[in-house]
């Protein structure tokens, strides 16, 4: 008798950046057709984020009929700076690839559908897609995967501040705090900064720049500050330190808008 083997399927679901109401209808459909949810926890400080994912699954699968598999994400060597930065990220990615490979091959049946719930949008500063490609390239397990876009923290930030990302016919750049600390990007006056543990905006407080800052966007702890950078920077520093102390972790994003806008003058 001929054996027909099934193909494992994976949903990579963007879940929005903190507000459960940011789940799209497409994301909910994908949640409803999932057999096994893989939740990767980065440690105690991020366990709030794992709980939020679990709550989302519970809310949209009240009838049950699924499994949740939790695993520990390996910590990245964040001490490695400069030239060592990329190899550190690469090592971390392959360690994660090993974990994802094991999760998919051991926890998901050959006809099963699994899902990774990705914070915000999977296209933005997230390694899930790269890791899944690495798992496929290793060749030990086969699967198909599809990506469900999510509302990113960048979309949330500008929506909450009721502003656009770019000015008329002008470019916008999304970058990291690490890069901003090296210099303001050239050829662009609107810059969104993510992953900034060191408040790189302080370096530009003497310039004619407005900041639109948001922490814990979409959650009950959300904090928003906007205005001229010189005035807003000390306030953000204070609020940020207080919030970090209170919760033990912080996620913040900001838009820097440099003036004068050539289009307006
Ligand atoms: C690893 S990146 C993931 C980004 C995510 N894929 C997205 O689409 O927003 C994490 C960074 O996103 C930003 N971020 C994510 N969620 C946020 C939130 N709720 N409030 C403020 N910033 C957030 C912060 O800059 C944080 O350092």
Detail the topology: elements first, then pairings.
Elements: E1 8-14, H1 25-32, E2 36-41, H2 47-60, E3 67-72, H3 85-107, E4 113-118, H4 128-138, E5 143-148, H5 153-160, E6 173-176, H6 177-182, E7 190-194, E8 209-215, E9 223-228, H7 229-247, E10 252-258
Parallel strand pairs: 1-4, 1-5, 2-3, 2-4, 6-7
Antiparallel strand pairs: 7-10, 8-9, 8-10
Helix pairs in contact: 3-4
Bound molecules: S-adenosylmethionine.
Number of separate helices: 7
How is the largest sheet built, in terms of strand order? 3-2-4-1-5
What low-confidence regions span 5 or more consecutive residues with pLDDT below 50? none
Query: How many distinct beta strands?
Result: 10
Strand content: 15-25%
- Strand pairing plus helix content: what structural class? alpha/beta
Estimate the global geometry from the Cα principal axes.
Answer: elongated
How would you characterize this protein structure?
It is a single chain. The chain has 265 residues and is of the alpha/beta class. The protein is built from seven helices and ten strands. It has helices at 25-32, 47-60, 85-107, 128-138, 153-160, 177-182, 229-247, and strands at residues 8-14, 36-41, 67-72, 113-118, 143-148, 173-176, 190-194, 209-215, 223-228, 252-258. The strands form two sheets. Strands 3-2-4-1-5 form a five-stranded parallel sheet, with helices on both faces. Helix 3 (85-107) packs across helix 4 (128-138). The chain is elongated. The N and C termini lie far apart (77 Å). The structure holds S-adenosylmethionine (SAM). S-adenosylmethionine binds next to strand 8 and strand 10.
